[in-house]
Amino acid sequence: MTNLQNDNFLRACLRQPVDHVPIWLMRQAGRYLPEYRATRTRAGDFLTLCTTPELACEVTLQPIDRFPLDAAILFSDILTIPYAMGLGLQFQEGEGPVFERPLRSAADIDALGQPDPETELRFVMDAVRLIRRELRGRVPLIGFAGSPWTLACYMIEGRGSRDFIHIKGLLYSDPALLHQLLRHLALSVTRYLNAQIAAGAQTVMIFDTWGGSLSTPAYAEFSLAYMTEIIAGLKREAEDRTVPVILFTKGGGNWLEAMAASGADVLGLDWTTELDHARRRLGDGIALQGNMDPIALYGSASGVSVEAERVLASHGTGTGHIFNLGHGLTPHTPIENVTALVDSVHRWPHRKA
Ligand code: CP3
Protein backbone atom coordinates (compact mmCIF):
# COMPACT_ATOMS: atom_id res chain seq x y z
CA MET A 1 0.00 0.00 0.00
CA THR A 2 1.38 3.41 -0.93
CA ASN A 3 1.98 5.63 2.01
CA LEU A 4 -0.24 8.64 1.30
CA GLN A 5 -0.38 11.49 3.80
CA ASN A 6 -3.75 12.63 2.46
CA ASP A 7 -5.94 10.11 0.63
CA ASN A 8 -9.27 11.94 1.06
CA PHE A 9 -9.52 12.40 -2.70
CA LEU A 10 -9.12 8.66 -3.42
CA ARG A 11 -11.56 7.83 -0.64
CA ALA A 12 -14.21 10.19 -1.99
CA CYS A 13 -13.78 8.71 -5.49
CA LEU A 14 -14.62 5.30 -4.01
CA ARG A 15 -17.42 6.70 -1.77
CA GLN A 16 -15.54 5.90 1.43
CA PRO A 17 -15.62 8.15 4.56
CA VAL A 18 -13.47 11.30 4.42
CA ASP A 19 -12.05 13.82 6.93
CA HIS A 20 -13.18 16.73 4.74
CA VAL A 21 -14.62 17.19 1.25
CA PRO A 22 -11.55 16.95 -1.01
CA ILE A 23 -10.89 19.65 -3.59
CA TRP A 24 -8.72 19.99 -6.67
CA LEU A 25 -9.27 22.33 -9.62
CA MET A 26 -9.16 21.66 -13.34
CA ARG A 27 -6.27 23.72 -14.77
CA GLN A 28 -4.93 24.29 -11.27
CA ALA A 29 -1.51 24.80 -12.86
CA GLY A 30 -1.75 27.62 -15.36
CA ARG A 31 -1.44 31.23 -16.31
CA TYR A 32 -3.24 32.69 -13.25
CA LEU A 33 -0.11 31.70 -11.23
CA PRO A 34 2.96 34.00 -11.58
CA GLU A 35 5.27 31.03 -10.92
CA TYR A 36 3.66 29.20 -13.89
CA ARG A 37 4.17 32.22 -16.15
CA ALA A 38 7.81 32.37 -15.05
CA THR A 39 8.44 28.68 -15.85
CA ARG A 40 6.63 29.01 -19.17
CA THR A 41 8.77 32.03 -20.12
CA ARG A 42 11.88 30.03 -19.22
CA ALA A 43 10.60 27.08 -21.33
CA GLY A 44 9.86 29.35 -24.31
CA ASP A 45 6.55 27.74 -25.23
CA PHE A 46 3.78 25.53 -23.91
CA LEU A 47 4.77 22.39 -25.85
CA THR A 48 8.29 22.50 -24.40
CA LEU A 49 6.68 22.59 -20.96
CA CYS A 50 4.67 19.45 -21.81
CA THR A 51 7.56 17.54 -23.40
CA THR A 52 10.23 18.28 -20.75
CA PRO A 53 9.54 16.08 -17.68
CA GLU A 54 11.46 18.33 -15.24
CA LEU A 55 9.40 21.36 -16.31
CA ALA A 56 6.10 19.44 -16.34
CA CYS A 57 6.92 18.23 -12.83
CA GLU A 58 7.78 21.74 -11.65
CA VAL A 59 4.47 23.25 -12.80
CA THR A 60 2.43 20.26 -11.55
CA LEU A 61 3.74 20.93 -8.04
CA GLN A 62 3.28 24.73 -8.08
CA PRO A 63 -0.42 24.75 -7.04
CA ILE A 64 0.26 21.94 -4.52
CA ASP A 65 2.96 24.05 -2.87
CA ARG A 66 0.73 27.15 -2.80
CA PHE A 67 -2.69 25.74 -1.75
CA PRO A 68 -3.67 22.76 0.47
CA LEU A 69 -5.26 20.93 -2.49
CA ASP A 70 -6.17 17.24 -2.10
CA ALA A 71 -4.86 15.98 -5.47
CA ALA A 72 -2.25 16.85 -8.08
CA ILE A 73 -2.96 16.51 -11.81
CA LEU A 74 -0.24 15.67 -14.29
CA PHE A 75 0.70 18.77 -16.26
CA SER A 76 0.29 17.85 -19.90
CA ASP A 77 -2.34 18.23 -22.59
CA ILE A 78 -4.93 15.97 -24.19
CA LEU A 79 -3.31 16.69 -27.57
CA THR A 80 -0.10 14.74 -26.81
CA ILE A 81 -1.60 11.73 -28.62
CA PRO A 82 -2.23 13.49 -31.98
CA TYR A 83 1.11 15.28 -31.49
CA ALA A 84 2.82 11.86 -31.22
CA MET A 85 0.87 10.71 -34.30
CA GLY A 86 2.67 13.43 -36.27
CA LEU A 87 -0.15 15.88 -37.03
CA GLY A 88 2.14 18.86 -36.39
CA LEU A 89 0.79 20.55 -33.26
CA GLN A 90 1.36 24.23 -32.54
CA PHE A 91 -0.03 26.43 -29.80
CA GLN A 92 -0.54 29.91 -31.16
CA GLU A 93 -0.88 32.83 -28.75
CA GLY A 94 -4.53 33.83 -28.38
CA GLU A 95 -5.60 31.10 -30.82
CA GLY A 96 -5.16 27.83 -28.90
CA PRO A 97 -4.03 24.57 -30.53
CA VAL A 98 -3.59 24.31 -34.31
CA PHE A 99 -2.63 21.22 -36.36
CA GLU A 100 -0.54 21.70 -39.50
CA ARG A 101 -1.85 18.45 -40.98
CA PRO A 102 -5.52 17.94 -39.95
CA LEU A 103 -7.28 14.74 -41.04
CA ARG A 104 -9.26 15.43 -44.19
CA SER A 105 -9.49 12.10 -46.05
CA ALA A 106 -9.81 8.34 -45.60
CA ALA A 107 -6.14 8.10 -46.62
CA ASP A 108 -5.16 10.46 -43.75
CA ILE A 109 -7.06 8.26 -41.28
CA ASP A 110 -5.67 5.00 -42.74
CA ALA A 111 -2.13 6.36 -42.38
CA LEU A 112 -2.37 7.06 -38.63
CA GLY A 113 0.08 5.14 -36.49
CA GLN A 114 -0.39 3.84 -32.97
CA PRO A 115 2.07 5.76 -30.74
CA ASP A 116 3.88 3.62 -28.20
CA PRO A 117 3.45 5.15 -24.72
CA GLU A 118 6.96 4.31 -23.58
CA THR A 119 8.70 5.60 -26.71
CA GLU A 120 6.86 8.36 -28.60
CA LEU A 121 5.05 9.41 -25.39
CA ARG A 122 7.89 8.59 -23.02
CA PHE A 123 8.08 12.25 -21.93
CA VAL A 124 4.63 11.88 -20.32
CA MET A 125 5.51 8.65 -18.48
CA ASP A 126 8.82 10.15 -17.30
CA ALA A 127 6.89 13.17 -16.01
CA VAL A 128 4.49 10.87 -14.09
CA ARG A 129 7.41 8.98 -12.51
CA LEU A 130 9.21 12.20 -11.58
CA ILE A 131 6.06 13.86 -10.15
CA ARG A 132 5.33 10.80 -7.99
CA ARG A 133 8.86 10.98 -6.62
CA GLU A 134 8.66 14.73 -5.93
CA LEU A 135 5.17 14.54 -4.39
CA ARG A 136 6.58 12.19 -1.76
CA GLY A 137 3.10 10.92 -0.88
CA ARG A 138 1.62 14.31 0.00
CA VAL A 139 -1.47 13.82 -2.23
CA PRO A 140 -2.44 11.39 -5.02
CA LEU A 141 -1.60 12.07 -8.67
CA ILE A 142 -4.29 12.17 -11.37
CA GLY A 143 -3.38 11.16 -14.93
CA PHE A 144 -5.63 11.98 -17.88
CA ALA A 145 -6.43 11.75 -21.57
CA GLY A 146 -8.94 13.26 -23.98
CA SER A 147 -11.93 11.21 -25.13
CA PRO A 148 -11.72 9.79 -28.66
CA TRP A 149 -14.52 12.15 -29.79
CA THR A 150 -12.81 15.25 -28.34
CA LEU A 151 -9.42 14.27 -29.81
CA ALA A 152 -11.06 13.63 -33.18
CA CYS A 153 -12.67 17.10 -33.04
CA TYR A 154 -9.24 18.75 -32.91
CA MET A 155 -7.65 16.29 -35.36
CA ILE A 156 -10.33 16.78 -38.02
CA GLU A 157 -11.15 20.48 -37.50
CA GLY A 158 -7.42 21.23 -37.14
CA ARG A 159 -8.15 23.74 -34.35
CA GLY A 160 -10.86 24.72 -31.88
CA SER A 161 -14.30 25.12 -33.43
CA ARG A 162 -17.77 26.46 -32.63
CA ASP A 163 -19.86 24.41 -35.03
CA PHE A 164 -17.66 21.35 -35.83
CA ILE A 165 -18.55 21.44 -39.52
CA HIS A 166 -15.82 19.05 -40.66
CA ILE A 167 -16.21 16.32 -38.04
CA LYS A 168 -20.00 16.47 -37.96
CA GLY A 169 -19.99 16.55 -41.74
CA LEU A 170 -18.09 13.25 -41.62
CA LEU A 171 -20.42 11.89 -38.91
CA TYR A 172 -23.45 12.44 -41.14
CA SER A 173 -21.84 11.55 -44.50
CA ASP A 174 -19.50 8.65 -43.71
CA PRO A 175 -20.11 7.39 -40.15
CA ALA A 176 -18.13 4.18 -40.80
CA LEU A 177 -14.97 6.19 -41.49
CA LEU A 178 -15.47 8.24 -38.33
CA HIS A 179 -15.96 5.00 -36.36
CA GLN A 180 -12.68 3.73 -37.80
CA LEU A 181 -10.89 6.82 -36.43
CA LEU A 182 -12.63 6.66 -33.04
CA ARG A 183 -11.82 2.94 -32.66
CA HIS A 184 -8.18 3.69 -33.42
CA LEU A 185 -8.14 6.53 -30.85
CA ALA A 186 -9.90 4.39 -28.22
CA LEU A 187 -7.03 1.91 -28.46
CA SER A 188 -4.43 4.71 -28.25
CA VAL A 189 -6.13 6.22 -25.19
CA THR A 190 -6.46 2.84 -23.45
CA ARG A 191 -2.76 2.11 -23.92
CA TYR A 192 -1.80 5.66 -22.91
CA LEU A 193 -3.84 5.60 -19.68
CA ASN A 194 -2.65 2.11 -18.75
CA ALA A 195 0.94 3.30 -19.22
CA GLN A 196 0.23 6.32 -16.97
CA ILE A 197 -1.17 3.94 -14.33
CA ALA A 198 1.90 1.70 -14.63
CA ALA A 199 4.12 4.80 -14.28
CA GLY A 200 2.32 5.90 -11.09
CA ALA A 201 -0.96 7.72 -11.86
CA GLN A 202 -3.32 6.91 -8.94
CA THR A 203 -6.54 8.03 -10.70
CA VAL A 204 -7.28 8.68 -14.37
CA MET A 205 -9.69 11.17 -15.86
CA ILE A 206 -11.17 11.20 -19.37
CA PHE A 207 -11.88 14.73 -20.65
CA ASP A 208 -14.77 14.78 -23.11
CA THR A 209 -14.84 18.53 -23.58
CA TRP A 210 -16.89 18.43 -26.80
CA GLY A 211 -19.24 15.47 -26.16
CA GLY A 212 -21.93 17.99 -25.21
CA SER A 213 -21.99 19.31 -28.79
CA LEU A 214 -23.66 16.09 -29.98
CA SER A 215 -27.32 15.03 -30.25
CA THR A 216 -28.42 12.43 -27.71
CA PRO A 217 -28.13 9.39 -30.03
CA ALA A 218 -24.87 10.68 -31.55
CA TYR A 219 -23.38 11.16 -28.06
CA ALA A 220 -24.15 7.52 -27.19
CA GLU A 221 -22.77 6.20 -30.47
CA PHE A 222 -19.76 8.44 -31.15
CA SER A 223 -18.53 9.47 -27.73
CA LEU A 224 -19.84 7.44 -24.80
CA ALA A 225 -19.45 4.03 -26.50
CA TYR A 226 -15.72 4.62 -26.94
CA MET A 227 -15.21 5.93 -23.41
CA THR A 228 -17.01 2.82 -22.10
CA GLU A 229 -14.66 0.65 -24.19
CA ILE A 230 -11.63 2.48 -22.76
CA ILE A 231 -12.82 2.09 -19.16
CA ALA A 232 -13.35 -1.65 -19.72
CA GLY A 233 -9.74 -1.90 -20.95
CA LEU A 234 -8.09 -0.10 -18.00
CA LYS A 235 -6.01 -1.83 -15.39
CA ARG A 236 -7.67 -0.44 -12.29
CA GLU A 237 -5.46 -1.87 -9.58
CA ALA A 238 -1.96 -0.58 -8.82
CA GLU A 239 0.19 -0.50 -5.70
CA ASP A 240 -2.53 -2.51 -3.88
CA ARG A 241 -5.13 0.20 -4.41
CA THR A 242 -8.04 0.73 -6.76
CA VAL A 243 -7.31 3.31 -9.47
CA PRO A 244 -10.57 5.28 -9.84
CA VAL A 245 -11.74 6.49 -13.24
CA ILE A 246 -13.37 9.93 -13.67
CA LEU A 247 -15.50 10.63 -16.73
CA PHE A 248 -16.22 14.27 -17.59
CA THR A 249 -18.45 15.21 -20.50
CA LYS A 250 -18.90 18.98 -20.55
CA GLY A 251 -22.58 19.66 -21.26
CA GLY A 252 -23.48 16.03 -20.48
CA GLY A 253 -26.15 16.80 -17.85
CA ASN A 254 -28.92 15.27 -19.95
CA TRP A 255 -27.17 11.91 -20.07
CA LEU A 256 -26.35 11.17 -16.41
CA GLU A 257 -27.73 7.63 -16.30
CA ALA A 258 -25.99 6.66 -19.55
CA MET A 259 -22.70 8.13 -18.34
CA ALA A 260 -23.01 6.32 -15.00
CA ALA A 261 -23.40 3.02 -16.90
CA SER A 262 -19.94 3.56 -18.52
CA GLY A 263 -18.19 1.88 -15.59
CA ALA A 264 -16.64 5.14 -14.31
CA ASP A 265 -16.25 5.54 -10.54
CA VAL A 266 -16.79 9.29 -10.69
CA LEU A 267 -18.79 11.60 -12.99
CA GLY A 268 -17.52 15.14 -13.46
CA LEU A 269 -20.31 17.69 -13.81
CA ASP A 270 -20.29 21.21 -15.19
CA TRP A 271 -22.21 24.01 -13.44
CA THR A 272 -25.42 23.57 -15.45
CA THR A 273 -26.43 20.41 -13.54
CA GLU A 274 -27.28 20.67 -9.84
CA LEU A 275 -25.48 18.10 -7.67
CA ASP A 276 -28.65 17.28 -5.68
CA HIS A 277 -30.51 16.70 -8.93
CA ALA A 278 -27.74 14.36 -10.17
CA ARG A 279 -27.77 12.51 -6.82
CA ARG A 280 -31.52 12.02 -7.00
CA ARG A 281 -31.26 10.64 -10.50
CA LEU A 282 -28.25 8.40 -9.89
CA GLY A 283 -28.56 7.27 -6.29
CA ASP A 284 -25.38 6.87 -4.25
CA GLY A 285 -23.64 4.21 -6.36
CA ILE A 286 -21.25 6.68 -8.04
CA ALA A 287 -19.14 9.64 -6.87
CA LEU A 288 -19.68 13.14 -8.29
CA GLN A 289 -17.04 15.77 -9.04
CA GLY A 290 -17.74 19.47 -9.49
CA ASN A 291 -19.20 21.87 -10.15
CA MET A 292 -18.75 25.58 -9.35
CA ASP A 293 -18.78 27.99 -12.27
CA PRO A 294 -15.08 28.99 -12.69
CA ILE A 295 -16.19 32.58 -13.35
CA ALA A 296 -17.65 32.76 -9.82
CA LEU A 297 -13.98 33.19 -8.82
CA TYR A 298 -14.06 36.67 -10.37
CA GLY A 299 -16.37 37.99 -7.61
CA SER A 300 -15.40 38.92 -4.06
CA ALA A 301 -13.69 36.43 -1.69
CA SER A 302 -16.83 36.37 0.50
CA GLY A 303 -18.97 35.75 -2.59
CA VAL A 304 -16.72 32.82 -3.47
CA SER A 305 -17.37 31.27 -0.04
CA VAL A 306 -21.12 31.74 -0.38
CA GLU A 307 -21.15 30.08 -3.80
CA ALA A 308 -18.83 27.26 -2.65
CA GLU A 309 -21.14 26.54 0.29
CA ARG A 310 -24.16 26.51 -1.99
CA VAL A 311 -22.44 23.87 -4.17
CA LEU A 312 -21.39 21.85 -1.10
CA ALA A 313 -24.90 21.98 0.39
CA SER A 314 -26.37 20.93 -2.95
CA HIS A 315 -24.49 17.64 -2.69
CA GLY A 316 -25.10 17.35 1.06
CA THR A 317 -23.03 15.66 3.74
CA GLY A 318 -22.93 12.14 2.30
CA THR A 319 -19.56 10.96 1.01
CA GLY A 320 -18.76 10.67 -2.69
CA HIS A 321 -18.31 14.37 -3.51
CA ILE A 322 -15.07 15.78 -4.88
CA PHE A 323 -15.25 19.56 -5.06
CA ASN A 324 -14.05 21.03 -8.34
CA LEU A 325 -15.00 23.70 -10.84
CA GLY A 326 -17.36 22.90 -13.68
CA HIS A 327 -14.50 23.58 -16.15
CA GLY A 328 -10.93 24.87 -15.98
CA LEU A 329 -9.58 27.87 -14.06
CA THR A 330 -9.18 30.84 -16.40
CA PRO A 331 -6.02 32.99 -16.77
CA HIS A 332 -7.17 36.12 -14.88
CA THR A 333 -8.54 34.37 -11.77
CA PRO A 334 -7.51 36.28 -8.59
CA ILE A 335 -5.23 34.00 -6.56
CA GLU A 336 -6.68 35.15 -3.21
CA ASN A 337 -10.08 33.84 -4.32
CA VAL A 338 -8.59 30.39 -4.97
CA THR A 339 -7.19 30.48 -1.43
CA ALA A 340 -10.64 31.46 -0.11
CA LEU A 341 -12.27 28.67 -2.10
CA VAL A 342 -9.98 25.90 -0.83
CA ASP A 343 -10.40 27.19 2.73
CA SER A 344 -14.23 27.29 2.47
CA VAL A 345 -14.38 23.73 1.16
CA HIS A 346 -12.05 22.39 3.85
CA ARG A 347 -14.01 24.11 6.66
CA TRP A 348 -17.38 22.85 5.48
CA PRO A 349 -19.63 21.76 7.17
CA HIS A 350 -17.87 22.77 10.42
CA ARG A 351 -18.09 26.48 9.55
CA LYS A 352 -21.70 26.72 10.68
CA ALA A 353 -21.25 24.55 13.80
O1 CP3 B 1 -5.83 20.63 -15.21
C1 CP3 B 1 -4.59 20.81 -15.19
O2 CP3 B 1 -4.03 21.67 -14.45
C2 CP3 B 1 -3.71 19.90 -16.03
C3 CP3 B 1 -3.29 20.42 -17.27
C4 CP3 B 1 -4.18 20.41 -18.49
C5 CP3 B 1 -3.92 21.28 -19.58
N1 CP3 B 1 -4.75 20.93 -20.59
C6 CP3 B 1 -2.91 22.33 -19.58
C7 CP3 B 1 -3.03 23.44 -20.53
C8 CP3 B 1 -5.23 19.58 -18.85
C9 CP3 B 1 -5.95 18.52 -18.04
C10 CP3 B 1 -5.58 19.93 -20.20
C11 CP3 B 1 -6.61 19.22 -20.98
C12 CP3 B 1 -7.08 19.83 -22.21
N2 CP3 B 1 -6.35 20.41 -23.21
C13 CP3 B 1 -8.43 19.83 -22.63
C14 CP3 B 1 -9.58 19.19 -21.87
C15 CP3 B 1 -10.00 20.02 -20.72
C16 CP3 B 1 -10.67 21.33 -21.12
O3 CP3 B 1 -10.09 22.37 -20.81
O4 CP3 B 1 -11.75 21.24 -21.70
C17 CP3 B 1 -8.51 20.46 -23.88
C18 CP3 B 1 -9.76 20.71 -24.70
C19 CP3 B 1 -7.18 20.81 -24.25
C20 CP3 B 1 -6.73 21.46 -25.51
C21 CP3 B 1 -6.14 22.77 -25.23
N3 CP3 B 1 -4.91 22.96 -24.63
C22 CP3 B 1 -6.69 24.05 -25.49
C23 CP3 B 1 -8.05 24.30 -26.12
C24 CP3 B 1 -5.75 25.00 -25.06
C25 CP3 B 1 -5.81 26.50 -25.20
C26 CP3 B 1 -6.61 27.08 -24.08
C27 CP3 B 1 -5.95 28.30 -23.48
O5 CP3 B 1 -6.26 28.56 -22.31
O6 CP3 B 1 -5.17 28.98 -24.16
C28 CP3 B 1 -4.67 24.30 -24.49
C29 CP3 B 1 -3.47 24.89 -23.87
C30 CP3 B 1 -3.27 24.60 -22.43
N4 CP3 B 1 -3.37 23.36 -21.87
C31 CP3 B 1 -2.87 25.54 -21.43
C32 CP3 B 1 -2.71 24.82 -20.24
C33 CP3 B 1 -2.25 25.33 -18.91
C34 CP3 B 1 -2.60 27.02 -21.66
C35 CP3 B 1 -1.22 27.07 -22.25
C36 CP3 B 1 -0.49 28.34 -21.94
O7 CP3 B 1 -0.74 29.32 -22.63
O8 CP3 B 1 0.38 28.33 -21.04
TrEMBL record:
This is Uroporphyrinogen decarboxylase. It is an enzyme of class 4 (lyase). CDD domains: URO-D. Belongs to the uroporphyrinogen decarboxylase family. The keyword Lyase applies. Its EC number is 4.1.1.37. GO terms for molecular function: uroporphyrinogen decarboxylase activity. The keyword Lipoprotein does not apply. Coiled coil: none annotated. SUPFAM superfamilies: UROD/MetE-like. GO terms for cellular component: cytosol. The record marks 77 as: Transition state stabilizer. Pathway: Porphyrin-containing compound metabolism; protoporphyrin-IX biosynthesis; coproporphyrinogen-III from 5-aminolevulinate: step 4/4. Its main location: cytoplasm. Homodimer. It is found in: Cytoplasm. It catalyses: uroporphyrinogen III + 4 H(+) = coproporphyrinogen III + 4 CO2. Catalyzes the decarboxylation of four acetate groups of uroporphyrinogen-III to yield coproporphyrinogen-III. It holds the Pfam family URO-D. Residues 22-31, 142-158 form the Uroporphyrinogen decarboxylase (URO-D) domain. Substrate binds at residues 27-31, 77, 154, 209, 327. Keywords: Cytoplasm, Decarboxylase, Lyase, Porphyrin biosynthesis. It comes from Acidithiobacillus ferrianus.
